[in-house]
Amino acid sequence: MFSNLTSPAGLKALDDFLSDKSYIEGVEPSQADVSVFEACGSAPDAAKYPNAARWYAHIASFGDEAKSFPGEKKPAASYGPAAPAAADDDDDDDDDDLFGSDSETDEEAEKLKAQRLAEYRAKKAAKPQEAAKSLVILDVKPWDDETPMKELEEGVRAIAMDGLLWGSSKLVDIGYGIKKLQITCVIEDAKVGTEDLSDQIMELEDYVQSVDIASFNKL
User: Fold this and answer.
1) Domain named Translation elongation factor EF1B beta/delta subunit guanine nucleotide exchange: which ranges (predicted)?
2) What residues of the chain score a pLDDT lower than 70?
């Protein structure tokens, strides 16, 4: 189960869990993703938790649409590896067996599940195809240790492009009292090119010495 997703241990568990999964439950976004997303509080550090950061940025890209995800929203602790729900289901099955076969009930439940899944897929297919997106981490280096990093970051975040969403950021020591700005963003591949974005950042010539792409992951 997931617990304290704002702690390093909790984020590590989430990152490991998402190493071979796109979503918390199943193959479609659901209320399980919304619950765990809210429990994280903020975007995980992509350098330490790349899988969790990729998933977080993907869920964030849905915005208010996430409220309409299917499923029942439960506490974040209800999800994750070795969740107790499976054991509870087994106990229920044992109790049901005392009163005979539930094959008809199971069959109807499967039909209802298949019907709901078909309805959700039909609804999703009717929506416009989601644009391909990428999670990008940029390293923005200043001229020296006297460069006002707050103003530098404000200048970077002021860059607005259709298909660009700025995320979390932090200052990283690079030596001699100089710190670089490491900032995350989500881009729509068809609308925003990393080269064009880097060129716009470089136009902040009073603050910026160079821009490097530290990480680039497809969502």
Assistant:
1) 133-219
2) 82-104, 127-129
Same domain, 143 and 209: yes
pLDDT digit string, tens, across residues 29-40 = 999 999 999 999
Asked if the structure places residue 60 within a domain, the reply is yes
- Inter-residue contact 158 to 191 (CB < 8 Å): no
Residues 156 and 189 in one domain: yes
State the DSSP code for 153: H
Do both 117 and 138 map to the same domain?
no
Question: Could you tell me if 162 and 97 lie in one domain?
Answer: no
Task: Please tell me the chain's helix, strand, coil percentages from 3-state DSSP, rounded to the nearest 5.
Answer: 45, 20, 35
Determine the structural domain holding residue 48 and report its residue range.
Answer: 8-78
Return the number of other C-beta atoms located less than 10 Å from residue 199's C-beta: 11
d(CA 218, CA 58): 10
| Strand, coil or helix: 201 | helix
Tell me if 25 sits within 8 A of 59, measured CB to CB: no
Could you tell me if residue 173 is inside a domain?
yes
The answer to whether the predicted template modeling score (pTM) of the entire model surpasses 0.90 is no
How many whole angstroms separate alpha carbon 61 and alpha carbon 63?
5
Same domain? For 21 and 73 the reply is: yes
